[in-house]
Design a protein that fits this description.
Strand content: 15-25%
Mean pLDDT: 94
Distance between the termini: 14 Å
CATH class of the domain at 349-544: Alpha Beta
Bound molecules: beta-D-glucopyranose
CATH topology of the domain at 349-544: Rossmann fold
Structural class: alpha/beta
Oligomer: single chain
Number of strands: 29
Strand order of the largest sheet: 1-2-3-4-6-9
Length: 736
């Protein structure tokens, strides 16, 4: 829905061996959708003009009375339609990982994709498209026509409780991937959001934390991820965020919504509020188009109140027409009205599980493999599997994105806590048991399991086995950040003790994001499986035993310790009382997050600037084969190089191109990437076109590239870089 900037980014062209799930919807021209929307607005009465502007959460939430319309589906949101004008009601569900279970109110099951970071670790836009198409299709069958997906906030802090829902710390990787996921979702003729706009970097005090950042730093980082995602995904809606930015609530920010999104980027869709994020009616003038879940706000601002304002104030009247036009443009552009959603039909869960499994397989990252301890031999005689509820299933993250597979979770551990959501939040494990999948791979082995609660008992089992596989978990949730990056519940001590007893110890991590690994030197192998979704157990076993050659690469930096982060202590973590909602509001005016510390140098760029050595760098990931990159050539913004499989097995590499220097100054920016599938000995030529924004600075209201030498290098990751190749580029300045 934005003006498309004339460039092509490095889209992967890998054909993924998964079923075609939806045809790309025939594109409806934005201009014709907009013209039709304007014509419909002309026909609207004053009452009709405040129908599409607000909605409810169609759920019987304790204590808040709300009338639930008959055609509503239990989900996150409901916006009434206008049948006289053929405008359908908007029925909204979360989210990027599958159709969510809305706090236990849906028992109908849905396919759980792996977490957002797991999806990003594939570096494979085609796979994100397939995932989006899959969950968008399920949303349709369940009666929804809006998916509250597209989480693309940059991972500025690995302790953020929602890291698992987002993608990465890099604007290019995040933007390209979210764009693909959104295209997949909207291929079902439904609307997807992109969220949470913007700078929603932590859950601690999420509704009031005030982010300080310069415009240049924001434009080159978090906002660039949104900009690329909007260009490539054309989402019907942008969901604004809970936090404040430069003193204003994000959903009431004239700078973010009017100046950047609508004026500078030319976005034509609508801005919907996050749930309970609207501070007042003036948000309409500041660019907000729709009030979501209005019973969670202090009042229904965008209903009768807005009608009255529009009757007496010109600015509100003009905005009200524009608000309607924007919602209708999104409806018409996605074809949502022409392809009405009617609940019903069968979901092919078996077929969809294959998509989830493929994402998990391509997203699992092999972090350590001493002496080729992996892959494990299927002829192993004895295996001790320890911890992580591996006998039951695989961990998932909690909050509004929580998905229940068919039959609900295999394991559900309640967590104590205060606040209205506490009773709904639990540590849930999808029904995909790694233990069973390991047994199926190693048919002749004696496979024993210990839950890991008693260290001595686990050590005893590990001693008796040829190989010990420890499943270590870090549960994370919306509404709550983790206090540090250790593995909770004494798991670090468990791993150290088991590794001391059996040198052939493999650690499988199921974590929301980065963790520290004080035991790393002691273990033979480590794989990061993230929250691996509906078929995570099978995907993990497939990687462990080499049926899948690991090819995931880290979409975020794993720090060696919290002291390396721009904020060694997370702002507010010492005084905000946790309550699964981001924390009670007392003292709310005192919470600031200073993002000017790192500016646009998020993640690996901060580490490069500080010359700090992380535990594992951004882009890192091992394989059971080996690759080489060579012959890097640059002609203007066009780069080409060769990737070769130099090992003995078929495998996928993720080629990464970085800017490493500009006019004599050191830089570190990912400027292109491509997943390449290669047979042993095979090679492929890769060509990429570099988006000039990745080489530029944002200053004085536009992009600026100084004239001079630009140095680029191919990297196995953000640190293991090849020899730089330099190209002279002319000075350039341009607007969005
Ligand atoms: C979350 C959104 C979500 C919404 C509706 C909010 O708490 O921040 O991501 O889409 O709830 O469930």
């Amino acid at each position: 829905m934005a003006k498309i900037f004339a460039f092509t980014t490095a889209l992967s062209s890998i054909a993924v061996a998964i079923p075609a799930l939806a045809q790309q919807a025939s594109p409806i021209s934005l201009a014709s959708a907009e013209a039709r929307a304007a014509a419909t607005v002309k026909q609207m009465t004053a009452d009709e003009k405040v129908v599409l502007t607000h909605g409810i959460m169609p759920l019987p939430l304790g204590g808040i009375a709300v009338e639930i319309p008959q055609d509503a589906v239990p989900g996150a949101g409901y916006i009434a339609g206008i049948s006289r004008l053929g405008v359908p009601a908007l029925k909204e569900t979360d989210a990027s990982l599958g159709v969510s279970y809305v706090m236990g109110l849906r028992k109908d099951g849905a396919t759980a994709l792996p977490s957002g970071v797991a999806q990003a670790a594939t570096w494979n836009p085609d796979l994100l498209y397939s995932g989006g198409a899959t969950i968008g299709g399920e949303a349709r069958i369940k009666g929804f026509n809006v998916l509250l997906a597209g989480g693309v906030n940059l991972a500025r802090d690995p302790r953020n409780g929602r890291t698992f829902e987002y993608l990465s710390e890099d604007p290019l990787l995040s933007g390209v991937l979210v764009g693909a996921a959104i295209r997949g979702i909207q291929s079902n003729n439904i609307i997807s959001t992109i969220k949470h706009f913007a700078l929603n970097g932590q859950e601690t005090g999420r509704k009031y934390v005030d982010v300080k950042i310069s415009e240049g730093a924001a434009r080159e980082s978090d906002l660039l991820a949104f900009q690329i995602g909007i260009e490539q995904g054309q989402p019907g809606s942008v969901m604004c965020a809970y936090n404040r930015v430069l003193g204003h609530q994000a959903c009431d920010s004239d700078w973010l919504l009017n100046k950047v999104l609508k004026q500078s980027w030319g976005y034509k869709g609508f801005v919907m509020a996050d749930w309970g994020a609207v501070p007042g009616i003036q948000a309409a003038l500041n660019g907000l188009d729709q009030q979501s879940g209005a019973q969670l706000d202090p009042a229904v601002f965008f209903g009768d109140q807005l009608k009255a304002k529009a009757a007496s104030e010109r600015a509100y009247a003009a905005r009200l027409d524009d608000m309607n036009k924007r919602v209708l443009t999104a409806i018409y552009a996605t074809g949502l009205d022409k392809h009405p959603v009617t609940p019903g039909g069968e979901i092919d869960f078996a077929k969809h599980a294959l998509v989830a499994e493929e994402v998990a397989k391509q997203g699992i990252v092999l972090l350590k493999n001493s002496g080729n301890a992996l892959p494990l031999a299927k002829t192993a005689k004895s295996i001790a599997v320890i911890g992580g509820y591996a006998d039951g299933g695989v961990l998932s993250g909690a909050g509004s994105s929580q998905v229940h597979g068919v039959g609900g979770p295999a394991v559900s551990r309640p967590v104590q806590g205060s606040g209205p959501l506490a009773s709904f939040i639990a540590q849930q494990y999808h029904r995909s048991s790694p233990l069973e999948a390991i047994k199926a791979m190693a048919k002749d082995a004696k496979v024993s399991f210990r839950d890991g609660r008693y260290i001595a008992d686990a050590v005893e089992k590990a001693k008796q086995a040829e190989v010990a596989i420890i499943f270590a978990t870090q549960w994370t949730t919306e509404g709550l950040d983790v206090p540090d990056l250790s593995l909770p519940d004494g798991q670090d001590a468990l791993i150290a003790a088991v590794a001391a007893a059996n040198p052939n110890t493999i650690v499988v991590l199921e974590t929301g994001g980065p963790v520290t690994m004080p035991w790393l030197d002691k273990v033979a192998g480590v794989i990061e499986a993230w929250y691996p979704g509906a078929r995570g157990g099978e995907a993990i076993a497939s990687v462990l035993f080499g049926e899948t050659n690991p090819s995931g690469h880290l979409p975020l930096t794993f720090p060696a310790s919290e002291t390396q982060l721009p904020r060694p202590k997370l702002d507010g973590s010492d005084w905000v009382e946790p309550d699964f909602m981001g924390g009670a509001t007392s003292g709310s005016d005192k919470l600031y997050a200073d993002y000017d510390i790192e500016g646009s140098d998020v993640g690996y760029r901060w580490f490069a600037r500080q010359k700090a050595k992380p535990l594992f760098p951004f882009g890192y990931g091992l394989s059971y084969t080996s690759f080489s990159n060579s012959d890097l050539k640059l002609a203007g913004l066009k780069a080409s190089f060769t990737v070769r499989n130099t090992g003995q097995r078929q495998g996928d590499d993720v080629a990464q191109l970085y800017l490493v220097g500009r006019t004599g100054q050191e830089k570190r920016r990912l400027v292109g990437f491509q997943r390449v599938s290669l047979a042993p000995g095979a090679q492929q030529q890769v060509s990429l076109t570099i988006d000039p924004r990745l080489l530029a600075d944002w200053k004085n209201g536009g992009w600026t590239m100084p004239a001079g030498d630009y140095a680029f290098a191919l990297g196995q990751d953000a640190e293991a870089l090849g020899a730089p190749v330099t190209v002279k580029l002319a000075a350039r300045t341009w607007k969005d």
